[in-house]
Amino acid sequence: MRVGVLTGGGDCPGLNAVIRAVVRKGIKDYGYEFVGFRDGWRGPLDGDTMPLDISAVRGILPRGGTILGSSRTNLMKVEGGVEKVKQTMSELGVDALVAIGGEDTLGVATQLTEQGVNVVGVPKTIDNDLNATDYTFGFDTAVNIATEAIDRLHTTAESHHRALVVEVMGRHAGWIALHSGMAAGANVILIPERPFDIDEVVAHVESRFQTNYAPIVVVAEGAHPKEGQMQLQTGERDSFGHVRLGGIGQRLAEELEQRTGKESRSVVLGHVQRGGTPSAFDRVLATRLGVNAIEAVQAGAFGQMVALQGTEIVRVNLSAATDKLKTVPEERYAEAEVFFG
């Protein structure tokens, strides 16, 4: 059997660990051949490939990013896209695809499965917002990076008696903000699931200043105020229709400075959360998912995604991962609220 492998969407610590595990397991145990498609769904659309053998994946376990490259190409918006993918696979003798990606990449994989293409999915997103899996690789690394940054910012905020607003990733789900904010002792955590009251945020910040400590506000990029409280600008959209977010941290810092009279600064962690070597947890999780993905191919379990549930790797329908987002439940946010102010 010949198997194609691709990585789509944003890069993520642990992608290379998945690729390595898929290839090594497939060659060693099943004698498969592998083809790497470059830059997400653009690869099978354009027939852009690279060889994937044991030598190609040697030494990539600790590397961030993806040796296959990535993109946000939406082949469903390309005229005749599905037929082009089928033609590419036929010409290359590719019998099945392992698609490693998040909501958008796996959404395309789901539609391809419905069109008769053999696809197995591997969940990937640092936002940890994919349904049907307890954790996605990359999330632990992103939280560790954000936590270390917030730890460092505490001391500079206190030295200058200013408020610092730390913007982290999280378009629709505030898992990174919640975990890093709790771990680093943030004074306020703002997430997309709970529109915030700017008056309450100001009160928490002022309370912190009164105790001679500098406040740290952690805000997810998709967090937003209650209607009518602050004006936010939105940016352009990508090929999947998502607005390019960013700016809430700066806007919030300006509002805090105006209302409290205290100097406020924003720090946007941005893509640094995605970069660099994956944590030990993410390396192990990504490796386990890769091994189980190729076992799913061997079993003919197409239209399935491998997922972490408890401590076990299981198979679920691809559609289960993308039919709804896994967002922060109210009770989890309530745990963090205990420490606000």
Automatic annotation (TrEMBL):
<feature type="binding site" description="in other chain">
    <location>
        <begin position="271"/>
        <end position="274"/>
    </location>
    <ligand>
        <name>substrate</name>
    </ligand>
</feature>
<dbReference type="InterPro" id="IPR000023">
    <property type="entry name" value="Phosphofructokinase_dom"/>
</dbReference>
<feature type="binding site">
    <location>
        <position position="265"/>
    </location>
    <ligand>
        <name>substrate</name>
    </ligand>
</feature>
<feature type="binding site">
    <location>
        <position position="10"/>
    </location>
    <ligand>
        <name>diphosphate</name>
    </ligand>
</feature>
<comment type="subunit">
    <text>Homodimer or homotetramer.</text>
</comment>
<dbReference type="InterPro" id="IPR035966">
    <property type="entry name" value="PKF_sf"/>
</dbReference>
<dbReference type="InterPro" id="IPR022953">
    <property type="entry name" value="ATP_PFK"/>
</dbReference>
<feature type="binding site" description="in other chain">
    <location>
        <begin position="169"/>
        <end position="171"/>
    </location>
    <ligand>
        <name>substrate</name>
    </ligand>
</feature>
<keyword id="KW-0808">Transferase</keyword>
<feature type="domain" description="Phosphofructokinase">
    <location>
        <begin position="2"/>
        <end position="297"/>
    </location>
</feature>
<comment type="similarity">
    <text>Belongs to the phosphofructokinase type A (PFKA) family. Mixed-substrate PFK group III subfamily.</text>
</comment>
<feature type="binding site" description="in other chain">
    <location>
        <position position="221"/>
    </location>
    <ligand>
        <name>substrate</name>
    </ligand>
</feature>
<feature type="binding site" description="in other chain">
    <location>
        <begin position="125"/>
        <end position="127"/>
    </location>
    <ligand>
        <name>substrate</name>
    </ligand>
</feature>
<comment type="pathway">
    <text>Carbohydrate degradation; glycolysis; D-glyceraldehyde 3-phosphate and glycerone phosphate from D-glucose: step 3/4.</text>
</comment>
<feature type="active site" description="Proton acceptor">
    <location>
        <position position="127"/>
    </location>
</feature>
<feature type="site" description="Important for catalytic activity; stabilizes the transition state when the phosphoryl donor is PPi">
    <location>
        <position position="124"/>
    </location>
</feature>
<dbReference type="InterPro" id="IPR012829">
    <property type="entry name" value="Phosphofructokinase_III"/>
</dbReference>
<comment type="function">
    <text>Catalyzes the phosphorylation of D-fructose 6-phosphate, the first committing step of glycolysis. Uses inorganic phosphate (PPi) as phosphoryl donor instead of ATP like common ATP-dependent phosphofructokinases (ATP-PFKs), which renders the reaction reversible, and can thus function both in glycolysis and gluconeogenesis. Consistently, PPi-PFK can replace the enzymes of both the forward (ATP-PFK) and reverse (fructose-bisphosphatase (FBPase)) reactions.</text>
</comment>
<keyword id="KW-0418">Kinase</keyword>
<keyword id="KW-0324">Glycolysis</keyword>
<keyword id="KW-0479">Metal-binding</keyword>
<keyword id="KW-0460">Magnesium</keyword>
<protein>
    <recommendedName>
        <fullName>Pyrophosphate--fructose 6-phosphate 1-phosphotransferase</fullName>
        <ecNumber>2.7.1.90</ecNumber>
    </recommendedName>
</protein>
<dbReference type="InterPro" id="IPR015912">
    <property type="entry name" value="Phosphofructokinase_CS"/>
</dbReference>
<feature type="site" description="Important for catalytic activity and substrate specificity; stabilizes the transition state when the phosphoryl donor is PPi; prevents ATP from binding by mimicking the alpha-phosphate group of ATP">
    <location>
        <position position="104"/>
    </location>
</feature>
<keyword id="KW-0963">Cytoplasm</keyword>
<dbReference type="Pfam" id="PF00365">
    <property type="entry name" value="PFK"/>
</dbReference>
<feature type="binding site">
    <location>
        <position position="162"/>
    </location>
    <ligand>
        <name>substrate</name>
    </ligand>
</feature>
<feature type="binding site">
    <location>
        <position position="103"/>
    </location>
    <ligand>
        <name>Mg(2+)</name>
    </ligand>
</feature>
<dbReference type="InterPro" id="IPR012003">
    <property type="entry name" value="ATP_PFK_prok-type"/>
</dbReference>
